Amino acid sequence: MKRVYNFSAGPSMLPEAALKKAAEEMLCHGNSGMSVMEMSHRSKSYEAIIQGAEALLRELMDIPDNYKVLFLQGGASSQFAMVPLNLMGKRKKTSADYVITGQWAKKAAQEAARFGKVNKVASSEDKVYNYIPELDKSKFDPDAAYFHITSNNTIYGTRYTTLPDTGSVPLVSDMSSCILSEVVDVTKFGLIYAGAQKNMGPAGVTVVIIRDDLIGDALEITPTMFRYDIHAENGSMYNTPPTYSVYMLGLVLEWLKSIGGIPAMQKINEEKAKILYDFLDSSSLFKGTVVKKDRSLMNIPFVTGSEELDAKFVREAKERGFENLKGHRTVGGMRASIYNAMPKEGVVALVEFMKEFERMNKIV
Ligand SMILES: Cc1ncc(COP(=O)(O)O)c(C=O)c1O
């Protein structure tokens, strides 16, 4: 069976090398005599897997020792609650700054508002989130418990190219759709979180990278499973971790290291995105929907201007082996998600198909 180019926004493509290794080890991992799925999370074999994944993530992202890496469950959506529950208790600070750059940012802010005060610093909702708003520092709350951004906006295809300067207020970022795609200075952040199912592995594990001083002062009402201190003290083993997802994450990180780590990955991602954006900028049929300076490297939305043609394109693309190009249900059009594991050839082939479609569907 031929594998397709899968442009899904997540879960999405995984590196073939990782899938092949998992297939080889499916029945028996190392000399354990069992599949990783069958292992006790307290076994020596599994300990090596989870500790290896953490060590590799620390190495690739250059995570300093004063940050904890947590492998949690509940998706990035649980972090929308965990962040305020754990950080709003800190020094009795009960408000937080949020920049609203899309539905995920909005959901994060709505959840935080259940536990404290949310100060909306800026929003790009007026233009269907097709840009990253300029930030006016006079609107930042110097007493905020933290300042929350969504580094890459999966649905709308925007990303921050410069970080807000929040001074001593910890910067918190949802990096679900861009983690490991470009070099990031972890020390600029108090907390980074990301669901794994786009750039890190299969669904089921959520990675949290948190600076030590932000751990240990959760609000009283915080359920035990939602407390960072509990997970940190127990090395992500307070309860059964998502064992197989963490194992797959480790294999994806091994692949990333083998191709030269994040700097090499960033270069490939910039090349891939340029191929598609250059075509969109020259096309007489397809148009990108995002303000150029804020364009995402990972999620590229585009339209033809005709809903009928959009639907025809998605249909015909699928027949040719380009899957999941339909835009998010709330915005329509198309979206090509070209995460780390999407090979350059996939983007080149897509653009060739778009050129052909354009020739066949010329509006006269
Ligand atoms: C930026 C961003 N944040 C949060 C989420 C929600 O993630 P989860 O489904 O893991 O809760 C997504 C999912 O696509 C996302 O793209």
Return the CATH topology of the largest domain: Aspartate Aminotransferase, domain 2
Bound molecules: pyridoxal-5'-phosphate
CATH superfamily of the largest domain: Type I PLP-dependent aspartate aminotransferase-like (Major domain)
Q: Largest sheet at a glance?
A: 7 strands, mixed
Helix content: 25-40%
Mean pLDDT over all positions: 97
**Series of secondary-structure elements, N-terminal to C-terminal:** EHHEHEHEEEEEEEHHHEEHEEH
Strand content: 15-25%
Radius of gyration: 21 Å
- How far do the termini sit from each other? 40 Å
CATH class call of the largest domain:
Alpha Beta
Task: Walk me through this protein's architecture.
This protein has 2 domains: 16-258, Aspartate Aminotransferase, domain 2 (3-Layer(aba) Sandwich); 261-360, Aspartate Aminotransferase, domain 1, CATH 3.90.1150.10. The chain has a 7-stranded mixed beta sheet with strand order 2-10-9-8-5-3-4. It has helices spanning 16-24, 44-61, 75-87, 103-112, 228-233, 243-258, 261-282, 307-319, 344-360, and strands at 5-6, 67-72, 95-100, 117-123, 147-150, 152-153, 158-159, 171-174, 191-195, 206-211, 287-288, 299-303, 322-323, 334-337. Strand 3 (95-100), helix 4 (103-112) and strand 4 (117-123) form a beta-alpha-beta unit. The protein contains 9 helices and 14 strands. It has 364 residues and is an alpha/beta fold. The longest helix has 22 residues, at 261-282. The chain is globular, with a radius of gyration of 21 Å. The model has no long low-confidence stretch (mean pLDDT 97). Residues 10, 75-77, 104, 150, 154, 174, 176-177, 195 line the site of pyridoxal-5'-phosphate.
